[in-house]
Amino acid sequence: MASSTIISRSMPFTTKVKVGMTMTEKIFARASERTQLVPGENVWVNVDVLMTHDVWDREKIVIIPDHYIFTSDERANRNVDILRDFCMEQNIKYFYDIKDLGNFRANPDYKGVCHIALAQEGHCRPGEVLLGTDSHTCNAGAFGQFATGIGNTDAGFVMGAGKLLLKVPPTLRFVLDGEMPNFLLAKDLILQIIGEITVSGATYKTMEFVGSTIESLSMEERMTLCNMVIEAGGKNGVVPADQTTFKYLEGKTSTSFEPLYSDGGARFQQEYKIDVSKLEPVVAKPHSPDNRALARECKDVTINRVYIGSCTGGKTEDFMAAAKDKKVKVPTFLVPATQKVWMDLYGLPVPGAGGKTCSQIFEEAGCDVPASPNCGACLGGPKDTYARMNEPQMLLLNLQSVE
Amino acid sequence: MAATALSDFPMAAATRLDFSMAQSAATIRGGAHLAPPKTFSPISQRRLPFAAPKTLKFSTSSSKPLKSCPRPPISASASASAAPKTTTFHGPCYVVGDNIDTDQIIPAEHLTLVPSKPEEYRKLGSFAMIGLPSAAYPVPFVEPGTDSTVYKVIIAGHNFGCGSSREHAPVALGAAGTVAVVAESYARIFFRNSVATGEVYPVESESRICDECTTGDIVTVDLEKCLLQNHSTGKEYRLKPIGDAGPVIEAGGIFAYARKTGMIASSPV
């Protein structure tokens, strides 16, 4: 038939030949106003959110003091003062300030550790580009957002220009299937993967996490996964947005967003398949995140001290998982990631604990009183902050290096 | 949601926030573009304290004759005002291994130092590489009691600069007087920060050099020829082209480069 001939002839001209793209490539394409991109291309990317600590569109900038606070160090406090003056001068909308260092709860604007605060305050949105002056900015990939860490000079450039030259990363895809045993957490999954690919296995690359196990994870668990892609050198980590994501975002943001997903024909540099039902709890031994061992292989290691906290390990669910009716045998320190997590420790009943809250369970177990939310324990900053008040000891951490 | 309203570059006209304000923001903790200029000077072959060996042995991976690599393209406006290029660096090298992280380059306790303040910039330099374990690295990078290093070049293995996003890492190295790092590979944020601040040239080697060099060896890094010569061993090694990053570092970082090439107003406020 004549008409069908016309249609088939016109097809190549009316439909652009399009090569499948990964979700990170698609976010780059949208933000650089391109239709097609390949890994390795350098493109100017429009930035949706810039996070920095310590500024183009004053509603797209989020500033969170969190690393160098709760200290009497004069230079550290001077720097936060300079930051505050700048935010006032520029009328920065999202400045989560802290003025009363004696009691963090006296600071209604104060949030705590930036990456978790960004999520809780609705700044992590699918399909967008978020840059932050901290290597764990990749945490926000849990929302299907492109998120990566940059330095301060680059951030200054973004403040002025609203965009930054970025290289399109190739994607490593991790397909995690199988029912996750109840003794595993997302930390086990990411340490398993880092142990496999090493601390530089994903350098300059995207780590995309998919599969039935990932779909079953809560937002906090997805954050744990994406938070640590930098420990494998990754540029960003990403989890496709789904109903879990949308439900988390309900009431947190009024900004509309457009989730993006990898095409069926997207090209991945490498694909890894992991049967989660067969995994065991793992630990990263000193002094590297890829120095992986099974937890049971370490049963004879003496622990002197325990720390639960940080952007990776200090979320509400992390504390819920740790709150068991047992006595601690060594000093155990708790640092909730944010003011909201701190409130949850005191307010939320732990499931199956007869109405007890985390704080009650921890107190009965003999843990330290939950400390003020901040990054100090991982950072090792001024001498009077958390990580530097003690002698080196064998320590069981549920965190990673910081910044 | 819609992409940002900025569709064009140069961005000076498109920005909603005065760009000069952004520069002052960048100086809060990491305004390395305002740091004092580096004091190294171009070193030509005839100024070498000794003649380069006449017979050069090639490393195992460089059995082919070394070709000069393509020169980095420079935009017209940049080359028009370009001063003589500094592309050769000469001096003793400091050799490290794989996965040197930012806590070893500059521990977090020193990050309250603000690089845009000259005295604090110098102090950052005095702490460069102070986090290296002394058992593995008995020779200090910066002699105690001084604030600069004699090592113009750092030679490293894989994944140099991994860890945190702290810009103080390349800044501390530059402040100490190091001009170039030659590594097999870099953590991406360190590489980016080196270029953005213009503090050090992050050069990639084509082969593993760190096992064949010793701290104190006298080396020459030639960016144009993409060549590292170790005069102490007589060996030569190929480097990968620094590419478009070269002119940015030479200008002194992205802000200086953007001014030089007319991307932003040339007179800092």
Task: Describe the structure using short key phrases.
heterodimer; A: 403 residues; alpha/beta; Aconitase, domain 3; 5-stranded parallel sheet; 4-stranded parallel sheet; globular; B: alpha/beta; Aconitase, domain 4; 8-stranded mixed sheet; 13% strand; EC 4.2.1.33 (chain B); AconitaseA/IPMdHydase_ssu_swvl (chain B); 3-isopropylmalate dehydratase (chain B); 3-isopropylmalate dehydratase activity (chain B); LeuD_type2/HacB/DmdB (chain B)
Describe the structure.
- The complex is a heterodimer of chains A (about 400) and B (about 270).
- In chain A, about 30% of the residues lie in helices and about 15% in strands.
- Chain A has 14 helices and 16 strands.
- Residues about 1-15 of chain A have low confidence and may be disordered.
- Chain A has a domain at about 295-395: Aconitase, domain 3 (2-Layer Sandwich).
- Chain A is of the alpha/beta class and about 400 residues long.
- Chain B is of the alpha/beta class and about 270 residues long.
- Chain B has a domain at about 30-35 and about 85-260: Aconitase, domain 4 (Alpha-Beta Barrel), CATH 3.20.19.10.
- Chain B has helices at about 20-25, 75-80, 100-105, 120-125, 170-175, 190-195, 245-250, 255-260, and strands at about 55-60, 90-95, 155, 180-185, 200-205, 220, 225-230, 235-240.
- Residues about 1-65 and about 70-80 of chain B have low confidence and may be disordered.
- Chains A and B meet through strand 1, helix 3 and helix 5 of A and helix 1, helix 6 and helix 8 of B.
Q: Could you give a short description of this structure?
A:
The complex is a heterodimer of chains A (403) and B (269). Chain A has 403 residues and is α/β, with parallel strands linked by helices. In chain A, 30% of the residues lie in helices and 16% in strands.
